[in-house]
Structures are given as C-alpha cells and as structure tokens.
Hints:
Mean pLDDT: 87
Low-confidence stretches: 469-477
Strand content: under 5%
Order of helices and strands: HHHHHHHHHHHHHHHHHHHHHH
CATH class: Mainly Alpha
CATH superfamily: Sodium/glucose cotransporter
CATH topology: Sodium/glucose cotransporter
Distance between the termini: 47 Å
Number of domains: 1
CATH architecture: Up-down Bundle
Number of strands: 0
Largest sheet: none
Radius of gyration: 22 Å
Shape: globular
Structural class: mainly alpha
Number of helices: 22
Amino acid sequence: MLLGLVIAYLLVSIAIGLYGATKVHNARDYVTAGRNLPMAIVLAMVFATWFGAETVLGISATFLEEGARGLISDPLGASLCLVLFGLVFARPLYKMNLLTLGDYFRIRYNRQTELILSICIVISYLGWVSAQITALGLVFNVLSEDAISQTQGMLIGAAVVLIYTIFGGMWSVALTTFVQMIVIVIGLLLVTQNAADQAGGIGQVFAKAAAEGKFEWLPSMDAIEILGWVAALVTMALGSIPQQDVFQRVNSSKNETVAVWGTTFGGVSYFFFAAVPLFLAYTATIIDPEMVKKFLEEDSQMILPSLIMGHMPFWLQVIFFGALISVIMSTASGTLLAPSVTFAENVLKGFAPRMSDQQFLWSLRITVLVFTIIVTFYSIMTDESIHGMVENAYRITLAGAFVPLAAGLFWKKASNLGAGLAITAGLSVWLILEILGIEEPVEPQLIGLIASALGMLIGSAISPNRAHGHGGDARHV
C-alpha cells in the first residue's frame, strides 16, 4: 500500500514534468526555461539545489556520528555558496545572457579554457548525481521491505527522473521542483512534530543534544583540526560556485532582481530548513536508541527511514517518503541536466559549431540519456556513502575553476595566460597530492586553490589582459 501510493506520486511528478516539456520549443527553452521564471519558482529551485538525499539522509546521519563539526561543508558551506553566488556572482553573469558557465570561460578567455573547465565541471557532477540515485535505490528498498533490491531501486529511480528531464529540460525541473518543495516543507514539518512529541518535546531533544556536545561546531585550537575545518568549508562554499546547476537556476530568472534575491533567499532558507532532518534524526536516539546503535555500526543512512517505518503512523509514512522522494528527484533532475548541458554546449558543440537549433536540442537530450546511464552505473558500483560522494564532488572545481571565474569577473588584468597557469597549477598540485595521499596538514584541494591563485597572478603579470570581455569566440545559441 505504501509503495503503491509512492508510485502514484511518482506518476504525478512525471505528468507534471511532461507538461513542462510542452513549453520547450528550442534549445534555450530547454536550458533556461526561456528566462521566464518568477521569484517563487527560482527560490524553490535554489533551495532544492542542495536539499537532496545528502541533507535528509547524509548529513542527518553525520550529525548523529560527529555532531555539528561534521556539518561544516553542508549545510554551512552549501548555504554560504548560494548566498555568495546570489550577492556577488549572479548579477554580472545574468547580464551576459549565456547558456552555460563554459560559455563565460570561452568569451572571457579562450576555447581551451572553456573545454578544460567544462570537462572539470562535468566530472564534478558524477558523485553528486550518483548520491541522489543511490538514495532512490535505498528508498525503494526500504519501502518494498527488500522485495526491490537497492540496485533495482536505483534503476527505477534513475528511469523516473530521466523520463521527464530528457523531454522538458529546465521547464520540467522548474515545475516539478516547485510542487516537490511544497510537499517537502509540509511533509517534514508534520513528521518532525510527531517525532518531537514521541521524544518528550522539542526542549528535551535540544537539551539532550546540547548535553552530548552535538552543537559544538567550531574546531578545537589544534592547528590540524582548524585547517581541516577551513578546507571543508571552503571546498563547498567556493568549489560549488563554478557549477552549472546553480548558474542555470540563476540564469532562468525573469530579471536581475529575481536572479540575485531568489538565489540569496534560497540559500538562507536552505540553511535554516536543513536543521529539520537533523532534529528529526536526533529524536531517534530518544525514541529507539537500540535501533540507532545498530545502524551506527552497520549503515547510519538507514536510521531515519527505519525510525519512520517503525514508529510513525501510516499516513505520516506516506507523507515522509513522498517528501523524501520529492527531495531526491528535485535535486537529481537539476543536477542531471546541468552536466549534460555543459557537455553538449561546451564540448560537443565546439566540434560541430554548425548544428541547427533542433539538432542541438536533440544532442542535449541524448547527452542527458548517456550521462544518466553513466551515473547509474557508477552508483551501483561504488560503495561510498552519500555524504562522502557529495563532499568529494567539488574538489576539482575548487582547484581548477573557481579562480578563473572570480578573477575573470572582478579583475580586469586576468588574462588567457593567467587562466591557463591557474588551471594547470591548481589541477596539477591537487591531483599529485590526491594520488600521493597527502592530506595533512592541509587537504589537497585547498593547496590546489592556492596554486591556482598564484598561477593567475603570475600569468596575468607576465601577460596582462588588454581587451577585457573579448578574449574568445562569442558563439551563442
């Protein structure tokens, strides 16, 4: 019965997504929803950028294991990324009316920079999208009481998201996400209220968590711990800025005001609402401590689903799993579309510049299909946790893409040579340290970021830019 109702909800989501596909008439509609989205939808989409499987299943489990210190990258770093993007990066990028961040790197620098950084951006999504597919598999496995294996669940979930994303693009993402966010907010609040009552009230839950030191989020005065804390924050806060999914949501706004404030308020909303699944997961330590102890040893991501299945009335189970499916699908669809658009526009189209608009639209859809197959296969093969997949997703963009983006927008002297050296130094240093396994006293991606900044300074000093904003081929759709 529960699984049947969730399947019905999935069918409704597919129907909404396919309705969005009727609004797609060209490639720009597919990628940016015609730049027609109002504040409410943009805010919902930005909120959904991070509010996925990682937030509900990943960081809630991490909170039980490590307390607030384990959450520096997410939700703190993730929220900071969205606020920074809204207040600092959204306006200048929105004015350029581009399809992708790769287009920016081509216009500001050159084709080589576009190609390399676009590939880096695409690679960074492998772990992020795989985390959503893994979570879908977990949900179907729980709902079916093992009748559907996690692998089969991954295949089913990936197919559902693919169906409406491949046809409707950003229009489908926008409309389904708006509906899904309403389900998420109402659903999680209702479930959390019930859990709080079972745990003895909100005050008792907070008092127990505080007594166990769960709210201590600052590092100790140990130098190694401070550097690790900073690395976790910076990797998510800055490494997530040169990402197509965030840019795409900003770029779909109907005007600059919506682009700036929809993104900023979306980031703030995410930070505060991310506390809801943390609180919900912690109530499990009071309601069923033996279950928590068991899954902390086996698979901490199962704590929240097991709490709901074992201690909630049927109607709240329906609401929770409907909300959880909404969370995952809204994030999965957007993060599935972003790397596909980047690859088609900035890699594929560069080798076939004379494609017609309809040919490009079909190349986008084919790329979505291929990327879905790749991430689903990766999800099935990897044994990494949801939180781990997300945390590692942005190392490559922090080391290689952040400096060229920020310097290009806000430093007129940033040049092609500077960008080239920034990419080469940042990625080389990061990769060498990763391969050698050197993570102390500073994590590899942070040293890569420093090397990238030095490369930009040295290259731009040797050969400063003399034609700001006209560094490459201004190819547009």
